[in-house]
């Protein structure tokens, strides 16, 4: 991969950046237009990320941040941890964007043009502060807490890429990064009640206060989202592809919720949380699209664990501070299934090699299910379970036996390997497209359930 941009790339990225800057300048002619500004910032973030990945690739290799692509015949050496570039550009974009969602409030809260026509009956004292306008400090606190949590998880992710932290240690990394977000949730919102399904209301009432259990649940969401993306990895483009699909699904959920909110003189309570989500998701899609361009098959860079932590924390933040964590989990169904399917290996019921990516057959150029070796034959219960799963009409595992019928190998329990068990050996890009397509299809079904069938279970939709 060349470190320099081609002439066409330079012209295209420059044109995109200039157009986005013009849009940003135009937003100040009105009321700030934060949604339009966020879209423009996303275009600028795409251009910067695309360029920096190209310019810094060789620098990362020289610094020792590199790895070999084991699913290629020649096993080329590629720069690693490029997700850190993506994350840094994203953070800088969000920081630069801060004035835009609060533009009207800043103008109204100052002595500038926002309130020149306001008659001041008395001068504000030091104790009163600004009396002409009440600034939405709670919204700003939520935004800044999201930034602080993202900065924390990026630092911890880079540390993981540099020092290769063990799974049992890095599992809880996102929980520490989520502390600022959870503290602001407690101070600003603090709601721990959950609505009871209509069918259970005679037994449990309409609401249940989960108290500290709800915070434990949110911490688990913050732990699960980054690690689940990190588990479903191992082939070119899969980490970024699944993240972009989830982001697009969440953006669609925000747009559907805003569209369904009833019109009224004052904003609906659901408006601000969903706008907050959009402000975080649009730049994320921008930087991820630039990374995807370089990471898709055949990959020219690796994303590293930093991107997985960063992407998962973005989703956890928009789900928790946007108050739709249950909807968030509907878009994570493939990741949830992959985690449950992987559990026997993750919890050492079965042998778990350090890397469980599919096996590359150098003779055919296709990927096959990778196998884990059994140094000792599994016990009777595990043997029976594996043989049963292997002989189902839709097999859930592949096994190899010796002449005595003892299991010597079994396929690694990941969704990628299971896909290969079902559909046979295939090229790496076809496998990535299959998993990404399944992610999109299942996510759309989840949103259909959320927006069309929710009233079959609950008395009212929180959008209305």
Provide the descriptors you would attach to this structure in a database record:
464 residues; mainly alpha; three-stranded antiparallel beta sheet; 18 helices
Number of helices: 18
Shape: globular
Provide the low-confidence segments as ranges. Answer: 111-133
SSE class: mainly alpha
C-alpha termini separation:
51 Å
Element order: H for helix, E for strand: HHEEHHHHHHEHEHHHHHHEEEHEEHH
Rounded mean pLDDT is 89
Q: Could you characterize what this model shows?
A:
It is a single chain. This protein has helices at 7-27, 34-62, 83-97, 103-109, 137-163, 167-170, 173-177, 179-189, 201-204, 212-231, 238-260, 271-295, 304-321, 325-331, 333-346, 380-390, 415-423, 428-452; strands at residues 66-68, 77-79, 193-195, 207-209, 359-361, 366-368, 371-373, 399-401, 407-411. The chain has 464 residues and is mainly alpha-helical. The longest helix is centred in the N-terminal third of the chain and has 29 residues, at 34-62. The radius of gyration is 25 Å and the shape is globular. Mean pLDDT is 89; it is low at 111-133.
């Amino acid at each position: 991969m060349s470190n320099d941009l081609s002439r066409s790339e330079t012209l295209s990225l420059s044109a995109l950046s200039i157009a986005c800057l013009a849009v940003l300048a135009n937003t100040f002619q009105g009321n700030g237009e934060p949604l339009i500004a966020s879209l423009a910032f996303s275009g600028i973030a795409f251009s910067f990320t695309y360029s920096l990945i190209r310019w810094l690739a060789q620098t990362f290799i020289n610094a020792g941040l590199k790895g070999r692509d084991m699913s290629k015949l020649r096993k080329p050496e590629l720069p690693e941890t490029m997700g850190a570039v993506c994350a840094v550009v994203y953070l800088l974009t969000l920081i630069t964007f801060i004035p835009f969602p609060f533009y009207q409030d800043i103008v109204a809260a100052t002595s500038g043009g926002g309130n020149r026509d306001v008659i001041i009956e008395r001068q504000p004292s030091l104790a009163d502060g600004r009396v002409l306008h009440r600034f939405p400090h709670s919204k700003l606190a939520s935004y800044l807490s999201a930034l602080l949590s993202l900065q924390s998880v990026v630092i911890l992710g880079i540390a993981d890429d540099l020092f290769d932290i063990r799974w049992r240690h890095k599992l809880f990394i996102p929980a520490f990064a989520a502390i600022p977000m959870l503290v602001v949730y407690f101070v600003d919102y603090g709601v721990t009640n959950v609505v009871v399904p209509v069918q259970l209301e005679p037994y449990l009432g309409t609401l249940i206060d989960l108290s500290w259990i709800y915070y434990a649940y949110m911490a688990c969401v913050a732990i699960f989202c980054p690690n689940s993306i990190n588990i479903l990895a191992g082939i070119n483009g899969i980490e970024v592809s699944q993240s972009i699909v989830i982001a697009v699904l969440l953006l669609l959920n925000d747009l559907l919720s805003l569209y369904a909110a009833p019109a009224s003189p004052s904003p609906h309570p659901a408006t601000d949380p969903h706008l907050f989500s959009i402000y975080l998701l649009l730049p994320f899609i921008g930087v991820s699209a630039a990374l995807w361009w370089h990471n898709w098959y055949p990959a020219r860079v690796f994303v590293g664990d930093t991107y997985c932590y960063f992407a998962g924390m973005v989703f956890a933040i928009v789900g928790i501070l946007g108050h739709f964590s249950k909807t968030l989990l509907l878009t994570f169904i493939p990741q949830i299934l992959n985690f449950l399917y992987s559990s026997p290996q993750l919890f050492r019921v079965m042998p778990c090699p350090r890397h469980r990516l599919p096996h590359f057959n150098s003779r055919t150029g296709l990927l096959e299910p990778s196998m884990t070796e059994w140094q000792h034959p599994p016990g009777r219960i595990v043997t029976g379970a594996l043989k049963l799963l292997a002989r189902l009409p839709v097999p859930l595992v592949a096994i190899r036996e010796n002449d005595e019928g003892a299991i010597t190998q079994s396929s690694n329990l990941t969704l990628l390997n299971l896909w290969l068990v079902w559909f046979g050996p295939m090229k790496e890009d076809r496998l990535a497209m299959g998993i990404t397509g399944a992610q999109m299809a299942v996510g759309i079904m989840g949103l259909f359930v959320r927006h069309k069938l929710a009233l079959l279970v609950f008395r009212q939709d929180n959008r209305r």
